[in-house]
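[Meeting: bench + compute handoff]

Bench side (C.D.) handed over the final construct sequence. Compute side (W.E.) agreed to return the predicted structure before the next meeting so the bench team could plan truncations. Sequence as handed over:
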Amino acid sequence: MATKTKTDKASNHKNPPKTAVSANGRISGNERAGAKIPPPQINEYGIPDWRLERPEFEVIEISEGREVHYEVRGHLDAPVPPIRESKYLKKEQYLEIYRWMLLNRRMEQALENLYKQG
């Protein structure tokens, strides 16, 4: 669980714009007309959410004095979604990318431990 100190800075969040973001990053109102993929939901900060799965959990910020920590609540035992078909990658390529990702994460953890040792 991450812990941080709360700052006294006031936040001014505005309503997000009501525009869609295309796959190439361009913002357009009518770009998605007739597309099979539903338009992304825009979060409160204006960032598009392209996920097709909607996890049934939430992260809650809990303040205790000047200390702040986060808790995850909800259904965390959901099955892993299947690998989707892609016109760009084969299943073997997905697995190879995943293996490299895991190897990279293990290396980052080892480097973090070495850095902490001094």
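W.E. noted at the follow-up: The radius of gyration is 20 Å. C.D. will use this when planning the next construct.
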